Amino acid sequence: MRNRSWWADPWRTHAIGRSLGWGLAAGFTLPTAVIMVLYATGAIDLTRSTASATSVAATALTAAVLTPVIEETLARYLLRLIEHLAGTWTALGVTAVLFGAGHVAMAAANDTLPDALLYALPARRPVSCSPAPTSSPEQCGCRLRCTPAGTWRPTHCSARTSSAPTG
């Protein structure tokens, strides 16, 4: 029988298992602590979903596990590729800009670009807006969104409401 203990040596000599455990614990604990602080200060709300448990679990798995793994893998690949071509500092700068641009672009898909930039910066959002106003004729077909100033603004207006202000 062949000796196959070579694969276990790095785990023993470098304590990779212990490092992996601490990394997983920190990766779970830090976001959980941030979300708990945001919830305790009233910055976010938790509401009960009307979707099926399977749908909620699939969405949570995608959002919490698959998306960050793919994003991290792609970012590391780009970092190593650019580092090999242009050096470490250039690679760090380029991948940081690409990472930021990707996240601002995703936020801009739901909001206007200035709002996306505002939300990308560390700023305190209002705890809540006053109750939403009733829809006036010029706001039909639009959704109202709470702005950082604590006011309501129509957004995502449909094409049939050309008189509605767009956000």
Automatic annotation (TrEMBL):
Residues 57-115 form the CAAX prenyl protease 2/Lysostaphin resistance protein A-like domain. Pfam families: Rce1-like. This is CAAX prenyl protease 2/Lysostaphin resistance protein A-like domain-containing protein. One of its GO terms (molecular function) is endopeptidase activity. InterPro entries: Rce1/LyrA-like_dom. GO terms for biological process: CAAX-box protein maturation. Keywords: Membrane, Transmembrane, Transmembrane helix. The chain crosses the membrane at residues 20-39, 51-70, 90-109.
